[in-house]
């Protein structure tokens, strides 16, 4: 079978590519029968991503907004950042994927329940029932990308993200809480309130932990879960981003297969929304340079910087320089759009780093 443009994976990355490409015949290949499976994401985005979602898709996809972020380093202290206007937004997933699919479904060929595997060459795809020869392939097949493994010989590195929707006692409903733990396999925990009695409580860890851990983590924040409505989760990539996200000029990587995930929070939607129009333009023009240039200028070095910072802090058993951020907020440098652009926090905290060794020494003594 011969095809023009094959997109493997109908997650946000694959669907957004399909939305923006105008001049090609698209075949979208998805291993599940339905879009949005498995549901895994917490759905937090910053101001810029929220604006793009509202403009390109629908304002109704954003269902909650938050004015406050509380950072809590267990055993050390916490600090809440207050903003006059909302800084973090919750996007409904998998409604995002359904909306995107709705927009593209009449213009594409959709092959569901087809697990695509790399073929003999970068533009060939194998599956149980199909042998497809494509002009171009977009590998938006997520964190366990078979295409990344085959062509970059890279085993996927990932962390576990698992969360539950709990009924609880009262919580400030405009504040999200991030608790850095970094103890054994548990790295950090988040609480996202949906109303005064309903919260999404999740954690990032190195391995799967018992379900009851979420309840213990809620208790650390003074919350008593009364019941759980739903459990869900998935894998958060922690590999280094590909230097060049294109192989042999015709195989394009996009989304978690690169991965475009900010290691501070596991947020993957920001760069997907930013880069999708560039990738689409490149595919329409049949020239990979535009996408590579946009990727290098908009995301690669920022993602690398965040990787470096996250590794450094996690090795020293310490994640965010909360006191430094606190100081930065006091002098007005922590801005509303920094949630989408974590690398900016890195650059803003760097001038204060000379004080860090003595702080880390003090911190270690407190945590010991
Ligand atoms: C617990 C958790 C919390 C998160 N929270 C946030 C958050 O708050 N904010 C944020 O911005 N991001 C968050 N993320 C990250 C975000 O969900 C991902 O970055 C985003 O979904 C990546 O989109 P994608 O399309 O690249 O991959 P995916 O969403 O994984 O989609 C890949 C698609 O490809 C399909 N597929 C895979 N392999 C094949 C194959 N061989 N053949 C055919 N189809 C295939 C899959 O079925 C899937 O539909 C979170 C992730 C997790 C796990």
From TrEMBL:
The protein's matches in InterPro entries, at most eight in alphabetical order, are given as: FAD/NAD-bd_sf (IPR036188), Geranylgeranyl_reductase (IPR050407)
Superkingdom of this protein's organism: Archaea
The protein's name is Dehydrogenase (Flavoprotein)
Which source organism?
Thermosphaera aggregans (strain DSM 11486 / M11TL)
């Amino acid at each position: 079978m011969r095809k023009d443009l094959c997109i493997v994976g109908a997650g946000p990355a694959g669907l957004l590519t399909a939305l923006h490409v105008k001049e090609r015949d698209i075949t979208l290949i998805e291993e599940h029968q339905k879009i949005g499976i498995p549901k895994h994401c917490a759905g937090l985005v910053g101001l810029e991503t929220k604006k793009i979602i509202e403009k390109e898709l629908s304002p109704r996809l954003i269902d909650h907004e938050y004015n406050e972020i509380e950072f809590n380093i267990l055993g050390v202290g916490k600090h809440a950042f207050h903003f006059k206007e909302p800084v973090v937004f919750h996007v409904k997933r998998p409604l995002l994927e359904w909306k995107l699919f709705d927009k593209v479904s009449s213009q594409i060929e959709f092959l569901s329940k087809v697990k695509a595997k790399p073929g003999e060459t970068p533009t060939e795809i194998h599956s149980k029932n199909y042998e497809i020869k494509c002009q171009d392939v977009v590998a938006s097949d997520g964190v366990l990308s078979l295409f990344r493994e085959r062509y970059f010989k890279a085993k996927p590195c990932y962390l576990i993200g698992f969360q539950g929707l709990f009924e609880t006692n009262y919580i400030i409903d405009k504040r999200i809480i991030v608790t850095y733990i970094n103890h054994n396999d548990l790295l950090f925990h988040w609480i996202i309130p949906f109303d005064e009695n309903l919260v999404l409580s999740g954690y990032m860890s190195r391995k799967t932990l018992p379900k009851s851990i979420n309840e213990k983590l809620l208790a650390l924040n003074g919350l008593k879960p009364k019941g759980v409505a739903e459990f869900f989760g998935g894998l958060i990539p922690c590999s280094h981003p590909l230097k060049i996200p294109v192989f042999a000029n015709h195989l394009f990587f996009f989304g978690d297969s690169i991965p475009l995930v900010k290691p501070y929070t596991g947020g993957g939607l920001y760069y997907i929304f930013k880069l999708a129009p560039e990738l689409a333009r490149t595919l329409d023009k049949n020239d990979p340079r535009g996408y590579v240039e946009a990727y290098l200028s908009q995301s690669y070095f920022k993602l690398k910087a965040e990787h470096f910072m996250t590794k450094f802090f996690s090795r020293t058993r310490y994640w965010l320089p909360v006191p430094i951020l606190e100081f930065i907020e006091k002098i007005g440098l922590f801005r509303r759009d920094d949630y989408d652009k974590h690398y900016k926090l890195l650059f803003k905290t760097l001038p204060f780093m000379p004080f860090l060794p003595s702080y880390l020494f003090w911190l270690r003594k407190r945590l010991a």
